[in-house]
Design brief:
single chain, about 150 residues, mainly alpha, two-stranded antiparallel ribbon, 7 helices, globular
Length: about 150
C-alpha cells in the first residue's frame, strides 16, 4: 500500500468514526442538525469566530444565503453572534457549548488515536510526525487563502 493510500485510509477512518457516532446519537436524541448545517458548523468552528461575510466568502455562497443558514443555527442554539469591540456594526460568529459537545464526538476519538500513536512512537518518530502535520497544514492553507486571514474576537 502506498503512503498516499495509507493517508487516505486514515482520513477516511476518522470520517467513518465521526459519522458512526453522530448517527448513533440520533437514536438517543432528536437529530437537530442537518447534514449541510453540520458542515457549516465545522467550517465556522475551524474559522474561529468569522463574520457572516467571511464565512460566505470561504464556502462560496451569497451573504443572504449564509445569513439564512447562520440564523437557523442560532435558533437551534449552536451559534451566537458577538458584537465587535472595535466596530459596533460588525458581528462575529461563535459556536456555543451545545456545538462543542456535538463536536467532541469526533475530537475525542482523534485525541485517543493520537495518544495511542504517541505511546507507540519514539520521541524522534513523534517529532517527525509533528513536522509532517505542520507541513500538511501549511500546504492546505495555500489552497484556502480566506482561511489564513482568520481572526479572533477583538
Amino acid at each position: 500500500m502506498t503512503t498516499e493510500n495509507k493517508f487516505l485510509e486514515v482520513y477516511t477512518n476518522f470520517k467513518i468514526h465521526f459519522y458512526r457516532d453522530v448517527f448513533g446519537n440520533f437514536e438517543n436524541k432528536e437529530a437537530t442538525l442537518t447534514t449541510v448545517e453540520s458542515f457549516c458548523m465545522e467550517v465556522i468552528y475551524a474559522m474561529q469566530c468569522p463574520t457572516i461575510n467571511e464565512f460566505a466568502k470561504l464556502i462560496k455562497i451569497s451573504s443572504p444565503n449564509a445569513a439564512y443558514k447562520v440564523n437557523n443555527l442560532i435558533k437551534k442554539g449552536y451559534l451566537e453572534k458577538i458584537q465587535s469591540k472595535t466596530d459596533r456594526r460588525e458581528y462575529f460568529l461563535r459556536v456555543t457549548q451545545k456545538y462543542i459537545d456535538y463536536y467532541n464526538i469526533s475530537s475525542g476519538y482523534v485525541n485517543d488515536v493520537l495518544k495511542r500513536l504517541k505511546e507507540r512512537m519514539t520521541d524522534e518518530e513523534w517529532k517527525g510526525f509533528d513536522r509532517a502535520c505542520e507541513i500538511i497544514a501549511e500546504e492546505q492553507r495555500k489552497d484556502i487563502p480566506e482561511y489564513r486571514s482568520m481572526h479572533l474576537l477583538g
